[in-house]
Design goal:
CATH topology of the largest domain in chain A: Rossmann fold
Shape of chain C: globular
CATH topology of chain C: ABC transporter involved in vitamin B12 uptake, BtuC
Number of domains of chain C: 1
Strand order of the largest sheet of chain A: 3-2-1-4-5
Number of helices of chain C: 15
Number of helices of chain A: 14
Largest sheet of chain A: 5 strands, parallel
Structural class of chain A: alpha/beta
Helix content of chain C: over 70%
CATH class of the largest domain in chain A: Alpha Beta
Strand content of chain A: 5-15%
Largest sheet of chain C: none
Distance between the termini of chain A: 63 Å
Radius of gyration of chain A: 22 Å
CATH class of chain C: Mainly Alpha
Oligomer: heterotrimer
Largest interface: A-C, 26 and 35 residues
CATH superfamily of chain C: ABC transporter involved in vitamin B12 uptake, BtuC
Strand content of chain C: under 5%
Chains: A alpha/beta (284), B alpha/beta (252), C mainly alpha (329)
Helix content of chain A: 40-55%
Order of helices and strands of chain A: HEHEHEHEHEHHEEHEHEHEHHEHH
CATH superfamily of the largest domain in chain A: Nitrogenase molybdenum iron protein domain
Structural class of chain C: mainly alpha
Order of helices and strands of chain C: HHHHHHHHHHHHHHH
Amino acid sequence: MSACARTSKRIPVLIAALSILLGAALPASAAPKRVVSLNVCTDQLAMMLAEPGQLVSVSFLARDPRSSAMADQAQAYPVNHGLAEEVFELQPDLVLAGTYSSRGAVMMLRRLGIEVIEFPPENGLDGVRRNLTRMGQALGQETRAAALLTAFETDLAALRADPPRRPRVALYGPNGYTTGDDTLAGAILATAGFDNIAAEAGLPGGGTLPLEQLVMLQPDLIITGTRYEGSSRAEALLDHPALTDLAAMPRVRATGGAWVCGTPHLLDAVREMVDLRREMETGQ
Amino acid sequence: MTDLLTLSDLTVRRGDCPVVDHVSLTVRGGEFVGLIGPNGAGKTTLMRGALGLLPATGHSSLAALPARDRARAAAWLPQMREIAWPVDVETVVALGRTPHIGARGLSDADRAEVDKALHWLDLDAFRHRTATQLSGGEQARVLIARTLAQGAPLVLADEPIAGLDPAHQIATMQVFRDLADQGRAVIASLHDLGLAARLCTRLVLLGQGRVVAEGAPRDVLTEANLREVFHLRAHYADTPDGPVFQPLEVIR
Amino acid sequence: MRYGALLILLSGLVALLFCASLLIGPAALGFGESVQALLSGKGEAAVLVMREIRLPRALLGVMLGASLGLSGAAMQGYLRNPLAEPGLIGVSSSAALGAVLALQTGLAAAFALALPLMALAGAVISVLLLLMLAGPRGSSLTLILAGIAVSAFAGALTSLVLNLSPNPYAAAEIVFWMLGSLSDRSFTHVWLALPFMAAGAALLATLARGLDALTLGEDAAQALGISLSRLRLVLVAGVAASIGAGVAVAGAVGFIGLVVPHLLRPLVGARPGRLLAASALGGAAMLLAADIAVRLITPDRDLKLGVLTALVGAPLFLHLIYKTRREGL
């Protein structure tokens, strides 16, 4: 027992020593040791791929199930709010950010000599593949990334469906914003065998769909976002009698986290939608 | 003639100081009472207190009435000549009928009163003019006409002839005197002692909130009263044209 | 009779704009189709659009516009100042603060009437504050200064409450509360606001004679048998109920209460009493027109009503200040 224990203790030390050596020799492939993520999507990719101890902080949104599919796992990490000062105090050697998030902090951190890698928001399944590969490289976890990618392709192939009749669905969010085909949500719907009504409404790229037009289009299904606490007119729109009176139509709420980011978790959303479509088919 | 106003021990205080100090007064139909006295003697305060527009102690027969009854018993012409909106003259005068009109608006009788008041003040030609565009003196006459249109047996007027040209001063005073002769009563605060002496049936001289003297003009405008209250020396004579009063000099 | 003719004309204008409001919208409905859907209830989707989306919007337009015009006319009559307007002097923004508090504390969710009631309370506080600071004897300057202070304070608190809200969309809605909009309002809002607006209008309508008499000043009005304390109470209650309910459901739309009485005053012989009914109708017409315009100018986004009313109202306001100053000198 004691021998085993000794060995197991020694291996990480060895790896560490090795990596220092390798790091000295090949700085480009050195795995960063203190990684901080500022964006809810990089949070999740990093949590999936980082080895224990490598990721030191994730954004506060990572714990919010409305935007993160890994809210439970995120409980294990300290959270940050994307402020340059708090991030700098964590002394990271790599910061992961979204292209559009915390611009001020990203610029400041770069000036302070910290490496920042930015991930653009993704709008399709290809983005998932690209993100996994890139994050694997960034964290020095290429092998894990490759394994996850294989699993993703297998699951995707199993879920992909092209039913004879594709139900027409409206993605209808706060302020009447409808999401177009060329988005993650659009890709989720298409993969699960739905047609997005946004194209019919003349908004293939998404945009504000007036309530009147939505009513006139009479979709088979309306998917709304999850609601936040507090109150807003933007969300109150979803309680408009004209919408609730479309009683013939089933409504579901997008389960939030799985729909937001280009990570393998979006397959959870696809799975949910496939189940819903089958339910609708048997119901008819 | 009936008593139209009875004041007994009326006192109005501003802070601790009595501005009107235990004034008792009775005004009957047929009287044109000139309220005279120097600035700050309490003339305005006395009339507003009598109308119940200011909190007062003692008794005022008008202040004791409910608002609408009081408005039918007495009309009030404030010194401040206010016409807030550019309404026409007829409209201003018709406001005098406010205490009389019911839900239906102006009746024919109301209109007749308005016409009468306009005619009395020589305002027929101004009927459709915008009141706020008239001269100060013309506005004053419009407001007097409004007061008369109220048709109350008693009219209280605060310096009604200030700012009028001499002809209209006399004409206006004559209107008040005519009212009195018809059995109604007028109380007007006046600074023109000459016109007061000629047209008022009775003068009430106020000094520092108290009634110093009251009675017929010649009994009030005595040398002693003028000296003590107004610090004036004046000439007073009864002539075939009626009493003539002319202040001559200030006594220090 | 000229006054009667004016009221009939204004009513006709309101009716016309009301119909236009019903016929304009992003859903491409033909005229016949719209009317049929509205009246007969045939054609499910079109019926929903007409009855649940356009009808409440047009009705709220009439109600809100009438309340704003009436309140503006009543306040101007009482203060004898053509610059008094619920939006400009902070009554609307205080009502908005009350409404936002009701929504963000969850009070409105627990008890629907809390929304208009809290807005009403906000309006009452601001009207009392204004009467205290710049009562009828106060100059235009005092009134406007007091109004600026009240609206700045209420606006800041509204922003604070919305920024502190856990809802990420709430903060973006500050502009709604400050400029107002009728988009996507439903019958829920109509029923919520209607009783308060009706009560407010009924109260303000009783003031006609008193406001007329006030043309001659407070002393003269009192001597004409008008009870000023009662008039003041009715005014505060009426304005607060009208404005509170309107702001609670549609945000603070400014300038209607300024522009409409100003335009109509010459047509009613400047009589404050007659201006009440005329301004209510004129306000309804102006608000409907503005709401039609926002839908025509930017059909795909929610342009706020207050933007349009301010474009018309602000220059007029400056003109009025200039005129008041010149007359004051």
